[in-house]
Each structure stands twice: as C-alpha cells, then as structure tokens.
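Give me the 3D structure for Nudix hydrolase domain-containing protein.
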Amino acid sequence: MDLSVKILPATNDVHGGVIVDLKEPMDSEDFATLLRSSLLHWKQQGKDGVWIKLPIELVNLAETAVKEGFWYHHAEPNYLMLVYWIPKTGCTIPPNASHRVAVGAIVLNDKKEVLVVKEKRGGFHGIGVWKIPTGLVDAGEEIFEAAIREVKEETGIDTEFVEVLAFRHTHNSFFGKSDISFICMLCPLSFDIKKQELEIEAAQWMPFKEFADQPFNQMHEPFKYMIELCLAKVEKVYNGFSPRPVSSYFVKELNYLYLNSHGLDKSS
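Predicted structure for Nudix hydrolase domain-containing protein (268 residues):
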C-alpha cells in the first residue's frame, strides 16, 4: 500500500462514521502510522464511529488497532470487526447482536400423531424425553424456512408451514446472549422418517396423548403450554401468526410480516 496516501481507505456509513474494509497485507508499524493519521483526519472531518473489518489473513493488525484504542465488536469465521468512537460525547455504536433466533416445529399428521425426536447431544440427551425438532435460524433465513429445514434435516420429513403459535424469550442461554424461540405448526407432506445420524438418536410418529403425557412435559411449563396451544389449534379455537410477504421502502427484496390474519382479510 502506498503510504503517501497518509490515511486508510474508508467509506462513509449512514450514521456519520466510516468503515475501513482492509484487503491488502501490510506491516503492523505501517498500519499504526496510517491509523493514527486516519483518526486525526476523521476527527477533523467530524466523524463519529470508526469500523475496521479485519479479514482473518490480517489478524496480525488486531493488536495494533487495540493499542490505538479500538475494541472488539464482533467476529465471524472469516473476519474480526473492531470499533472506535472519536467524539468525547457518549458512544452510540450499537452493541453486537444480543439474540439468537430458534424454531421448534410441531408436525401433526391426520392420525393425531406428532413427529418427535431424541437427541444425541445437548440438554435433552440422556433424560429419555421425546421432543419436537428444533434448531437455530440461519442468517438471511425466514422463520418458516428454518422450521421446514430443521424438520427435513432431523427427520427427512417434508412439511408445509402453517403458523407461528407462540414465541419464548430467554436470557443468558449462550455466552451471555438471549434467545427468541418460535413455536411453529407445520403440516406433513411425507411420512417415511429418515433420521439424521449426526445429532438424532431416534425419531418417530408418536400418538399426541402419549407425547403430552410424558412426565417431563408436565414439569417443564414451556412444553406444557406448547401442548395446550397445539390442542387449541387442532380444535380450531386458536389462531397463530402466518407469514405475509410485504414490500419495504428500505430494501428491494420482499420480507415477511407475521400476523394473525383472522378477521383481517374479511374486513379488507
């Protein structure tokens, strides 16, 4: 990199800061010199936050940035993000993502059997509990897509998404992070189970009453409420939230609003 430029290449963000997306290798001393002159330049410009995205190949520069006052914001498999706040006023850089999003899938067939699994690892392993398929929502994945995918991955069953029945908010579940878990109802499109070998010990179609009567479900209130919601849905006295595609002023792609449309469509 040509040091005569004096500052690091950066782009402006929409919040009055700059983003440095480093690509080229450089010596840590050269980086320190550029970083100091860049911070002075951005301060004179009235910039606020500075984001430096370090690819894993340039991890040698992380210590230099920290010594200049930067701190870790978050990391992904291929990069580390560091931040710095220039003004003397209070820092308004948003913290790293505070939540994971998970789904649980209730799949009920016409025989009133529910699709259940036993896991090979995790908190449910070894306690003899049959549970519904669950898993995390991937980045860029819709809730309904994640529910369909998790069922397919764990049991080999194809499904159609029906509704979100409820969601649960828990805290300090994973390295101090919080979780939002969506309980979803799905309709099976296939019935022959092919369980996942890596994580699933067993999978089966179980009579709903047998599933509901498991002692664990009576002791664990979230499962108890899940069973009550499922029964209410089957008896058609409960309406959940279904995804509706909506357009946005801010993005080109359609996204989804999850709503209870009961009575809404009739009035429109």
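The first helix runs from residue 28 to 44. Let me know if you want a second pass.
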